[in-house]
Design a protein that fits this description.
Blueprint (H helix, E strand, L loop, with lengths): L12 H20 L5 H17 L5 H35 L3 H20 L4 H16 L27
Amino acid sequence: MFGFGKHTPSEDPQRAAAIEQSKKVIRDLIHAMADASPEESERLAQQVKDRCGGDTLLPFDFKQKAFKKARELQCNANMRAADRLMHQAARLAAEENMKDRGAKVAEARRYFAKACTLGADEEWRKAFQRLNETILLTGGVQHKGPTRAKPLDTAPKPPNRAKM
């Protein structure tokens, strides 16, 4: 009735330009999150939150979409990091490097927890937990010397008679 909140681009071109500039900055921040590390992704998500929270000109639905997309990309970054670390831990477990395997698994679990709080898919969660169990059961059983199951072989080697 009195015109509160009824600003159209034709009435106020400076306001429309400011809104578009804010939207562009937020879109650029979200686009930068696509391939970012989890730490970088968290920093960019916080910037998106700060920009959207402090800007009263932006439409509510745009803010909601920006928050949702930032959260999704942050979750994906944590999932990628957890997967990468679990595969490194599997390789270390196969090489019998138990100390480094434990460190990689612990770091992967930290990223797993962050991904779960950000809304990771249930299927991915189960796959991560299966891989975690497999890695923890892998390694640590190889013995360097002779054992009861594989005693030291002291028999002489047969001569190579195939080339006579």
